[in-house]
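Hello everyone,

My group is preparing for a crystallization screen and wants a predicted model to guide construct design. The compound we'll soak is pyridoxal-5'-phosphate. Before spending weeks at the bench, it would help to have a computed complex in hand. I've included the protein sequence and the ligand's SMILES below. Output in structure-token form would be ideal because that's what our pipeline reads.
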Amino acid sequence: MSIDVNEFYTPERFARLKAFADKKDTPFVVIDTEIIDEAYTELSKGFPVADIFYAIKANPAPQILELLRDRGSSFDVASRYELDKLFAIGDVSPDRVSYGNTIKKAKDVRYFYEKGVRMFATDSEADLRNIAKAAPGSKIYVRILTEGTVTADWPLSRKFGCRPDMAMDLLILAKELGLEPYGVSFHVGSQQRDIGAWDAAIASVKVIFERLKEEDGIVLQMINMGGGFPANYLSKTNELSVYAEEITRFLEEDFGDDIPRIILEPGRSLISNAGILVSEVVLISRKSHTALNRWVFTDVGKFSGLIETLDESIKYPIHVEKGGELEEVIIAGPTCDSADIMYENHKYGLPLNLAIGDRMYWLSTGAYTTTYSAIEFNGFPPLESYYL
Ligand SMILES: *Cc1c(COP(=O)(O)O)cnc(C)c1O
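Reply:
Good plan to model first. Here are the tokens for the complex, ready for your pipeline.
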């Protein structure tokens, strides 16, 4: 079986994973945490001055949180439940936490504040006023809207952030409300394949920094550049090192020697490549005697971890052990819902001799799979995961 599309899984690593996986019933994800460790090293080398705040939503497994805690990572937390999960592993001080969700209840802001968290994202006046009351004196960063929704495979932009002029008003208001106007954040969209998206965002941030300093005497100190760094799926991206070089150049062009504190919030790029989802073929059929494409139904689907196949946005590399002549197929999940079709427009080539009971290996599935899984649609249990 060739596994060469994934440079992260060496033959030795894959053999180790397979020896483990062969004893387990499908479907499940196996994550080789060594690969996460290497991704963390690569990112910190690419951005030596940046502070990494792991976006917990990508995969909140304690094994991952512990590894990243021990590597010195901080954490981008989106809810009180994620905060509880994070603090449950122990030895994470609250100054390593940022409450990065701009949509939150006042009582949840209070909860974070009581746990010692002092850094909050916002993008609206109502939320800012809540923070001023529930978390007095805290550091505030305002998220701006970004373009780049077309070139990101999983855009996050439109729902979050505000226009730069409003961002400036919010930072001024933050000061008036007794908060510390600390910085500006953006997220260029997840799996962002156009590195230029960071250039445009950094340029907007620069304008905000300058105007606030000149017109209002507010000196901002931090840029949170979000996530968006790539995992290895079928659609090609540049290497992370190219992202790092280019983005560093954009920062230097705009800020010269006076680069503020830089925060990164990677999720996907740290975790995805470490995971392989193992499923089994349940049924193979044709819709008519003359139909050109076979349907391959597998025991994992949109409702059990593969929601990012919506609109075929994320195309995971799929491997099977059989070789030989390939045929283009439609790939669908096991539930009684016709939305549970993963790939129909993009035709994957799978071997003609693929049979019921054969296993399928979905690469780069470490992030945004386990937590997106439904809890019992059609009675199917949530996606199982194991950590090597
Ligand atoms: C989801 C999210 C991230 C992680 O993005 P990736 O593209 O997975 O790296 C970072 N920051 C915020 C605020 C997010 O919502």
